[in-house]
Amino acid sequence: EVQLEESGGGLVKPGESLRLSCAASGFTFSSAWMSWVRQAPGKGLEWVGRIKSKADGGTTDYAAPVEGRFIISRDDSQNTLYLQMNSLKTEDTAVYFCTTVAYHSVWRSYGTYDYYYYMDVWGTGGTVTVSS
Amino acid sequence: DIQMTQSPSSLSASVGDRVTITCRASQSITTYLNWYQQKPGKAPKLLIYAASSLQSGVPSRFSGSGSGTDFTLTISGLQPEDFATYYCQQSYTTPLYTFGQGTKLEIK
């Protein structure tokens, strides 16, 4: 069974740091692109960032509100995804979900593929509370 | 940035009803549109990707349509387990994904 499970959440003060972990099982983690999505209390979903597989370069991308403060990394030997959160703000308070990023490819007549990305497996979520 | 706007923000319906939720993009996203279902206290679940492709294991009463800026999620024959919040998401500007604000579907 494909599973993702977050851990490491908790209560921290503004300006402090925290690291979330996401343990993966049931699929080939090293081949997967992964992302983090968060949800503030009573609010909607917000994409946080993504990391590609090492075979595809292992590069990361971030949403503007967290760029420069959050770092996504992976340890393929441990099947684990990480989210290092620095300089935390009260507005970072949320449930954080790790997800796999999959795609559907369509060959186009003009000689290239279009890739339709989506988040197909989600973790149960880890809670981060930033409060003084 | 592409903004995604869902309507309505909430709606009430009865078991057996046909329900349509709309998602509008601030610019054309062709068919780079996904739909998710989220129940209280749970993680979202993928329903539809690429505007109209049904994710494996999702009941066929769920369907998606649209292209460009206007999209719809239709549930034909509501079941008790369908009462949840639904989100659209654009992947046109991947990896900078944007979600709609959500539509809460409640029991009438």
How many E strands of chain A?
11
The Rg value of chain B, from CA coordinates, equals 13 Å
Principal-axis shape of chain A equals: globular
The shape of chain B, in one word, is globular
Tell me what you see in this structure:
The complex is a heterodimer of chains A (132) and B (108). Chain A has no helices and 11 strands. In chain A, the strands form 2 sheets. In chain A, strands 2, 4, 5, 6, 9, 10 and 11 form a 7-stranded mixed beta sheet that branches. Chain A has a 4-stranded antiparallel beta sheet with strand order 1-3-8-7, with no helix packed on it. The mean pLDDT of chain A is 96. Chain A is mostly beta strands and 132 residues long. In chain A, a hairpin with a 5-residue loop joins strand 4 (33-39) and strand 5 (45-51). With 108 residues, chain B is an all-beta fold. Chain B contains no helices and 11 strands. In chain B, strands 2, 4, 5, 6, 9, 10 and 11 form a 7-stranded mixed beta sheet that branches. Chain B is globular, with a radius of gyration of 13 Å. Chain B starts with a strand and ends with a strand. The model of chain B has no long low-confidence stretch (mean pLDDT 96). The chains are: A mainly beta (132), B mainly beta (108). Chains A and B meet through strand 5, strand 9 and strand 10 of A and strand 4, strand 5 and strand 10 of B.
Keywords:
heterodimer; A: 132 residues; mainly beta; four-stranded antiparallel beta sheet; 11 strands; globular; B: 108 residues; seven-stranded mixed beta sheet
